[in-house]
Amino acid sequence: MPRDGAIIFGDLVGKLDALNVTCDKCGRKGRYMVSRLIEKYGSDGKVVDFLSEITKDCPKKLAHRMNDQCGVRCPDLARVM
Predict the structure, then answer these.
(1) Are 13 and 34 in contact (CB under 8 A)?
(2) Is beta strand 18-22 parallel, antiparallel or unpaired with respect to 29-33?
(3) Which residues of 38-61 are buried (b: 16+ CB within 10 A; e: fewer)?
(4) Among 1, 44, 45, 67, which residue carries the largest CB count within 10 Å?
(5) pLDDT tier, 77 (very low <50, low <70, confident <90, very high otherwise)
(6) Which of 48, 30, 28, 50 is nearest to 39 (CA)?
(7) What's the pTM value of the predicted model, to 2 decimals?
(8) Residue 31 Cα to chain centre, angstroms
(9) What sign results for the dihedral spanned by CA atoms 43, 47, 48, 54?
């Protein structure tokens, strides 16, 4: 899978044990073990593709409002990348 400058799960090995995901707009919160994400998506799986998959049912995303979009993020990534 081409990387295209994206952060991949392999980048997180040795830096994070778990990837925290939050959305201040809809209240989504989750904690995903990096080792399990690699098992499921591979070490070259893109974090952005994972976020898109887990937010496919987000009401903010489904509403298609440009001024009130889903705000999903991984706050820990800024500290390790």
Answers:
(1) yes
(2) antiparallel
(3) beebeeebbbeebbeeebeebebb
(4) 45
(5) very high
(6) 50
(7) 0.83
(8) 10
(9) positive
DSSP helix/strand/coil, 73: strand
Q: What is the pLDDT of residues 11-63, one digit of tens each?
A: 999 999 999 999 988 888 999 999 999 999 999 999 999 999 999 888 877 77
For residue 15, the tally of other CB atoms under 10 A from its CB is: 12
Contacts of 10 (CB under 8 A, 6+ apart): 38, 43, 44
Residue 49 near residue 8, CB atoms below 8 Å: no
Q: Is residue 3 part of a domain?
A: no
Domain holding 65, by residue range, is 9-80
| DSSP for 3-72, written as a single string | -TT--BGGGGTTT-SEEEEE-TTT--EEEEEHHHHHHHH-TT-BHHHHHHHHTTT-HHHHHT-TTS----
1 lies in some domain: no
